[in-house]
Structures are given as structure tokens and as C-alpha cells.
């Protein structure tokens, strides 16, 4: 048996000030695999624990197969949880660990055939008579999975089950979890902060930030049509390029997007999406370009929808199957708040203001202050632009495409055979069909929210 899980406007507060989950609404279909994804501290485990009944709901409703379950004890919800830290009984053999939930059920059925079948499914028949301390991390996690599976629960709840394993094993077990849950057809809610894991496992991915659900979509839609700048930045490696920009819309000329030193002319006749940009004239916007939306080629090679710019090579990252070229195009990178775990508010810095930037700078400072002091900054703006030294306080993640000292603003994916020397000025073509525009609060304005290009929805 597998079941539907519905959360309606579910809020969880701890004490007076900590709003760990804020009006969370999600319907999970029977048999569906949903991944809760977001940075550390965004409320993923809290949602999972509320579904399991390990945590009370402060406000809102939780329904299983359409029925409210307030007051139904965790043990009666017929769910199995798998945790990051494996949680096995050290003094029991692995066999006893796996059969423990079956023995707890006190049914007259002999648990042995089920334990054997589960062990076969997980490839751990040979280690059943050992103790957890005699196993590797991957084997231990398989035993923990076995314990969850053997009971044939109606739901699996998994909280970062692979986070303690090394990368190779993680990929291997990821594939096994995918196969296993599909075979069993059991509703699964899986928590992770790893976007690659989320994208490869989930039927749908639910992205959270500061306790608030940002978007729930199929993996490919999360990548192709991110609801806002936070989602666009959280998903995808290398990270999407985000550039500060303004819309230039003269009454008697061609509309363009101004990237400080260079412009992206918008092709005439304007697409409906680009027409919408007209109302942004004069306002700050943020342009998002994934590393595959730009290619190294001359203006003469432009295909319809591609416009030329140029970039100075800062450095190249060789990746084996591809290379990432870091360019300086003279634009200014925009920063997304809260991408990593919540940080303490930075000490207020005195800075010289660029002429005309006063309102924005003040707004940004207040946004920064909010992000640090308010436990639920979720409704606040996502992007902070106009920071003179945007990456100074960021730790560059591997492949995040942000060198610690360089001034690159655009990372472009290219063939590993391309050889470019630092300092070279290189012609680039930007594919406008893959250009995202966000307003200063981080909402996506282009593609317009109602238009989902190329999606079979
Ligand atoms: P995640 O699993 O996404 O890392 P959690 O759901 O564990 O996040 O936590 C969400 C927020 O709730 C965090 O700010 C965390 O500090 C807070 N929190 C979690 N559990 C408690 C608790 N028992 N008491 C107070 N605050 C808590
Ligand atoms: Mg957690």
C-alpha cells in the first residue's frame, strides 16, 4: 500500500522567534518520489519530521490519503525513516537490525524470508551475520535501508541518507535508491541539500528557502524555468551567470539590455517576452545566462537569436569532458542572498556610494540586515545588487565558477580542446532564447511566468 501526503499551509515555529517552516503547501501523489531541496537550515528536516509525526504542526493541516492525522502517533503512520547517520543498533547483528521492525509488529509471520528477500534486493546477503561496526559506511547505509524496506511501509522518509558517504558510493547508492523505490512503488519524500542528487532522483523537486517553498516542478522544469533567481542559482553547475543590467528602450530605436560596458540588442520584431521588458526601462534588472547560453564564435557565425559581445579571458578550468572559460565582459555580477547556510549579518561597512545608487544601496543594506536578523527572511528580496565587492565574503564552491581573486563575470562552457590564453579578447555569441531576466526582488520576468517555452505541460 502506498499513500498520498498533503500538507496545507503548514507552519512550524519554535519558541516565539524561529519560524522553521512557513505556510508550506504540497500534494504528493501515491507512489511519487518528491525531493525536498534547499540549503542547510531551510526547514527540510522539519517538514519531514512533521510528516513522520515526530514534530507537532504549529498551524495548517497534514493529510494522509485525505484524512487529517493530527494525533496519530508516529508508529501508527506506517512510515519508515532513513537518516543520515545510519542509526543502527550496534549490539545487534545486521540481520537483527533489519528484522527488528518486523519483530516489533508482533505478527505471527516468520520474519526470516522477508529479511532474506530484502537483503537480496540490496545485495547484502553476505554481511547479515556481522555487526554494524564491522561494515563500511555504504554497507551500513544499505542495512539501514533494509530495515526501512523490510516492513513494506506505505511511505519512505529519507533525510540526507547519503550525505555521510564518499562521492563514488553516493552515486552508486543513489541509483540503488532510485531502482528500489520504483520497484516498491512506495511514496517517498527525500531530503537533500545536493542539487545533483535531487535532480537525478526526484519525480518532482520542491525547493525551499528560509522555511518557504519556492517552486515544485519536475527536475527539467526546475532547471529550464526557475521560478525565481534563488532557484535559478541553486540549480545547475557551474552556477548560472548573474549580471546586473538595465533595459535601454529608446522611443525611436532598438531596445537593448545594457550590461554596463556592453549591450545585448534585442532582435526586431520584439518577442512578447522582450516586449514586456519595456516597462523595466530605467530599472535595475538581473540577467541570468547559463554557461551553455553563450558560445565562443564571431559575429559572422551568429544564428538567429544570437547576439555578439566580447570577453577577456581571465582563466580556464579544464574539466576533462569540457572546459569552463571565465571571462571578464565588464559587467557586474549580482549576488543572491542566503544561497548557502544562513550567515550572520555582515558588519555594516562604510562605502562610497556611486552617484545615483543611493536608494539601491540603502535598500540592499536593509535586505542584508533582514537576512541576518529575521529568522524568516523568506518573503524578503532574494537578490542584493550594487555590492561593490560582491564575492569578498563568499567561499567559492568547486565548479561554482567564481574565482576568489579574479574579476570574471561570465563562465562559458566549451570544448576541452579549446586553448585560450589569459588576457585574450574573444568574440562571444549570446543565445537570447536562453536569457533569463529577474527583477530586483529576484522574481523571474523573462521568460514571462505564464510562458513556458518548449515544455510539454
Ligand atoms: P534543514 O533540514 O533544512 O537543514 P531544519 O528543518 O533542521 O533545516 O531547521 C530549520 C530551522 O529550524 C533552522 O533554523 C533550525 O535552527 C531551526 N530548528 C530546527 N529544530 C529546532 C528546535 N528543536 N528548536 C529550535 N529551532 C529549531
Ligand atoms: Mg536537515
UniProtKB/TrEMBL annotation:
One GO term (biological process): carbohydrate transport
Alphabetized UniProt keyword annotations: ATP-binding, Nucleotide-binding, Transport
Record-level Gene Ontology MF annotations: ABC-type transporter activity; ATP binding; ATP hydrolysis activity
InterPro entries: AAA+_ATPase (IPR003593), ABC_transporter-like_ATP-bd (IPR003439), ABC_transporter-like_CS (IPR017871), ABC_transpr_MalK-like (IPR015855), ABC_transpr_MalK/UgpC-like (IPR047641), Mo/tungstate-bd_C_term_dom (IPR008995), P-loop_NTPase (IPR027417), Transp-assoc_OB_typ2 (IPR013611)
Chain positions covered by the region annotation Disordered: 339-359, 389-409
GO cellular component, as recorded: ATP-binding cassette (ABC) transporter complex, substrate-binding subunit-containing
UniProt key word Nucleotide-binding: yes
Domain ABC transporter intervals: 5-235
Pfam families the record matches: ABC_tran (PF00005), TOBE_2 (PF08402)
Keyword Phosphoprotein in annotation: no
Protein's recorded name: ABC transporter ATP-binding protein
Organism field: Streptomyces himalayensis subsp. himalayensis
Taxonomic placement: Bacteria, Bacillati, Actinomycetota, Actinomycetes, Kitasatosporales
Amino acid at each position: 500500500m502506498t499513500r498520498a501526503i498533503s500538507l496545507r499551509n503548514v507552519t512550524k515555529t519554535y519558541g516565539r522567534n524561529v519560524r522553521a517552516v512557513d505556510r508550506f503547501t504540497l500534494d504528493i501523489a501515491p507512489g511519487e518520489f518528491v525531493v525536498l531541496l534547499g540549503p542547510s537550515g531551510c526547514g527540510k528536516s522539519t517538514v519531514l519530521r512533521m510528516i513522520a509525526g515526530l514534530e507537532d504542526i504549529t498551524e495548517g493541516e497534514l493529510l494522509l490519503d485525505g484524512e487529517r492525522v493530527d494525533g496519530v502517533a508516529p508508529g501508527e503512520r506506517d512510515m519508515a525513516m532513513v537518516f543520515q547517520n545510519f542509526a543502527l543498533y550496534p549490539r545487534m547483528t545486521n540481520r537483527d537490525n533489519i528484522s527488528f521492525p518486523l519483530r516489533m509488529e508482533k505478527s505471527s509471520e516468520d520474519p526470516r524470508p522477508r529479511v532474506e528477500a530484502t537483503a537480496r534486493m540490496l545485495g547484502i546477503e553476505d554481511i547479515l551475520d556481522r555487526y554494524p561496526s564491522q561494515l563500511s559506511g555504504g554497507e551500513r547505509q544499505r542495512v539501514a535501508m533494509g530495515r526501512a524496506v523490510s516492513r513494506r511501509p506505505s511511505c519512505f522518509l529519507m533525510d540526507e541518507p547519503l550525505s555521510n558517504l564518499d562521492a563514488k558510493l553516493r552515486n552508486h547508492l543513489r541509483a540503488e535508491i532510485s531502482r528500489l523505490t520504483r520497484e516498491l512503488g512506495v511514496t517517498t519524500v527525500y531530503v537533500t541539500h545536493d542539487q545533483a542528487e535531487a535532480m537525478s532522483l526526484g519525480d518532482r523537486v520542491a525547493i525551499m528557502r528560509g522555511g518557504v517553498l519556492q517552486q515544485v516542478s519536475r527536475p527539467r522544469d526546475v532547471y529550464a524555468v526557475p521560478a525565481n533567481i534563488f532557484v535559478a542559482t541553486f540549480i545547475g553547475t557551474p552556477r548560472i551567470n548573474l549580471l546586473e543590467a538595465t533595459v535601454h528602450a529608446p522611443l525611436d530605436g532598438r531596445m537593448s539590455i545594457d550590461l554596463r560596458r556592453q549591450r545585448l540588442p534585442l532582435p526586431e520584431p520584439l518577442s512578447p517576452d522582450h516586449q514586456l521588458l519595456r516597462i523595466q526601462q530605467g530599472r535595475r534588472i538581473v540577467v541570468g545566462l547559463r554557461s551553455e547560453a553563450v558560445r565562443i564564435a564571431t559575429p559572422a557565425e551568429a544564428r538567429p537569436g544570437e547576439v555578439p559581445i566580447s570577453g577577456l579571458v581571465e582563466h580556464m578550468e579544464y574539466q576533462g569532458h569540457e572546459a569552463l572559460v571565465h571571462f571578464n565582459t565588464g559587467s557586474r555580477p549580482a549576488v543572491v542572498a542566503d544561497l548557502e547556510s544562513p550567515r550572520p549579518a555582515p558588519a555594516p561597512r562604510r562605502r562610497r556610494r556611486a552617484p545615483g545608487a543611493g536608494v539601491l544601496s540603502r535598500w540592499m543594506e536593509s535586505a542584508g540586515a533582514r537576512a541576518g536578523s529575521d529568522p524568516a527572511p523568506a518573503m524578503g528580496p532574494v537578490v542584493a545588487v550594487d555590492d561593490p565587492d560582491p564575492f569578498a565574503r563568499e567561499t567559492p564552491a568547486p565548479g561554482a565558477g567564481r574565482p576568489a581573486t579574479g574579476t570574471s563575470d561570465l563562465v562559458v562552457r566549451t570544448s576541452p580542446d579549446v586553448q585560450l590564453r589569459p588576457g585574450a579578447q574573444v568574440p562571444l555569441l549570446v543565445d537570447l532564447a536562453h536569457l533569463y531576466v529577474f527583477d530586483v526582488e529576484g522574481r523571474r520576468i523573462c521568460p514571462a511566468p505564464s510562458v513556458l517555452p518548449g515544455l510539454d505541460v
